[in-house]
Amino acid sequence: MNVADSAPAMNNLLASNADSQRTLYPYVTGTSVVGIKYKDGILLAADMGGSYGSTLRYKTVERLKSVGKHSIIGASGEISDFQEIMRYLDELILYDNMWDDGNSLGPKEVHNYLTRVMYNRRNKFNPLWNSLVLGGVKNGQKHLGTVNMIGVHYEDNHVATGFGNHLARPILRDEWHENLTFEEGVKLLEKCMRVLLYRDRSAVNKLQIARITEDGVAVFPPYSLKTFWNFNAFQNPTVGAEGSW
Amino acid sequence: MSTAAESVPPKGGFSFDLCRRNEMLVQKGLKQPSFLKTGTTIVGLIFQDGVILGADTRATEGPIVADKNCEKIHYMAPNIYCCGAGTAADTEAVTDMVSSQLKLHRYHTGRESRVVTALTLLKSHLFSYQGYVSAALVLGGVDVTGPHLHTIYPHGSTDTLPFATMGSGSLAAMAVFESKYREGLTRDEGVKLVAEAICSGIFNDLGSGSNVDICVITKGKKEYLRNYMLPNPRTYVSEKGYSFAKKTEVLLTKITPLRELVEVVEGGDAMEE
């Protein structure tokens, strides 16, 4: 992901009229989203940070939202593009409701819709600069998938975006198993989010968990993780090696 | 070349004679051989009585695995070992060089080498080459002042840490360390955690693979456990070997001698003119 320009105003002067109509780089970005399937449905976790380049500008950005009755979406990347995606999805759900035919769009359908939208925008060289995680349950079938800004999409028992792929996926590959309970699932997600908090510079210690089951969606209030900084070796680390740190 | 240049004895230092020819070849379209990199997972961790170092054993040349079972844990001194990631030649050369310097220093001082000595020698060498010596190292050892673990980056900066990972698989290994490390680990717990971290790198990073090497260094003792774990065995080996079904019949065997191109001159030497 590109680091946002520190002087966004300059770009408008330098870009021609045609160029300024398409997304060239992200400005306000969210970091990783991690999602897992568990016994009763899907759990998503994301922190609430919105970075403006290397500044942690916004610390209460809700990056997990519900979509219709059967899905939840989590987004990383450009926040304004996520808001645009939510408008598209709200319109999609609205039209579906207006049919009033007893059917409602399930997570598989919403995932497919998002894939088409992202891929077509990429083909027009005007991408929505996001990596999305889409999860849901419909008629007992759990679905968890991801789509990113170039249209790459896949489903799995656990997915992550951005840094989550490098730091959280290895942990999930080792420790995820079928039929996690809700508490086990949250504990596993917290383990991943803690490592991300330690090792991702754009992470903030304020995260939200969202859950979806056959019964409905719950986006839990934000909270922070306990961290440990008191290893002995961190006090006076260079007492043996002057000049290093 | 003028005759004057030949009579002057070589002064030593780098000879730039072939540089112009190499550039000319590159311009003509020659693809220079790429570096043999050790896309790698290397880790180190401090436990109760000393230091444990771990490494995978895959050496890559671009997308190809060049060596399935190379050694990335290098000997520096009887009580100091160093894991290397980056360009294989650079890590080998720089660790060999500092190892020799340490030995000479041991003869000079009559004492056991200290980890900070190795650290300073390595970092000053790497800094003077401004990052062009592409070696990222995890240096660990136990000396009179206690157990030490350092990471050294190609540009010459160092960190002193209780647990460290380097290489392309460092994030996967660090995820394991950050979630499972605690102080006062015993030897067996430490070895298990290091093996887990290397396995995380082996299975989640494409640049790392094959086996796990471990080195445990404690006061007065070191154990070099080469191929401690082999989590990637060759599963399907045919015991019968390969036999190809005989569907082809031999119809005719004909041996045609090649025409002799050498003309034998009769009488006298052909070279005599």
Automatic annotation (TrEMBL), chain A:
Keyword Nucleus belongs to the record: yes
Biological-process GO terms, alphabetical: proteolysis involved in protein catabolic process
Top-rank lineage group of the source organism: Eukaryota
InterPro entries from the UniProt entry: Ntn_hydrolases_N (IPR029055), Proteasome_alpha (IPR050115), Proteasome_beta4 (IPR016295), Proteasome_bsu_CS (IPR016050), Proteasome_sua/b (IPR001353), Proteasome_suB-type (IPR023333)
Example of a GO cellular component annotation carried by this entry: proteasome core complex, beta-subunit complex
Transmembrane spans: none
CDD domains assigned to the protein according to its UniProt record, in alphabetical order: proteasome_beta_type_4
Sorted UniProt keywords: Cytoplasm, Nucleus, Proteasome
Similarity-based family: Belongs to the peptidase T1B family.
Protein name in the entry: Proteasome subunit beta
GN (gene name): LOC105158294
UniProtKB/TrEMBL annotation, chain B:
Intracellular or extracellular location(s): Cytoplasm; Nucleus
Coiled coil: none
Organism: Sesamum indicum
Listed GO CC annotations: cytoplasm; nucleus; proteasome core complex
Reaction(s) catalysed (UniProt annotation): Cleavage of peptide bonds with very broad specificity
CDD domains: proteasome_beta_type_7
GO molecular function annotations of the record: threonine-type endopeptidase activity
Active site as annotated: 40
The protein, known as: Proteasome subunit beta
Gene Ontology terms describing biological process: proteolysis involved in protein catabolic process
Chief place where the protein resides: cytoplasm
Keywords: Cytoplasm, Hydrolase, Nucleus, Protease, Proteasome, Threonine protease
Family annotation (Pfam families): Proteasome (PF00227)
Record's function text: The proteasome is a multicatalytic proteinase complex which is characterized by its ability to cleave peptides with Arg, Phe, Tyr, Leu, and Glu adjacent to the leaving group at neutral or slightly basic pH. The proteasome has an ATP-dependent proteolytic activity. Component of the proteasome, a multicatalytic proteinase complex which is characterized by its ability to cleave peptides with Arg, Phe, Tyr, Leu, and Glu adjacent to the leaving group at neutral or slightly basic pH. The proteasome has an ATP-dependent proteolytic activity.
UniProt record similarity statement: Belongs to the peptidase T1B family.
Binding partners and assembly: Component of the proteasome complex.
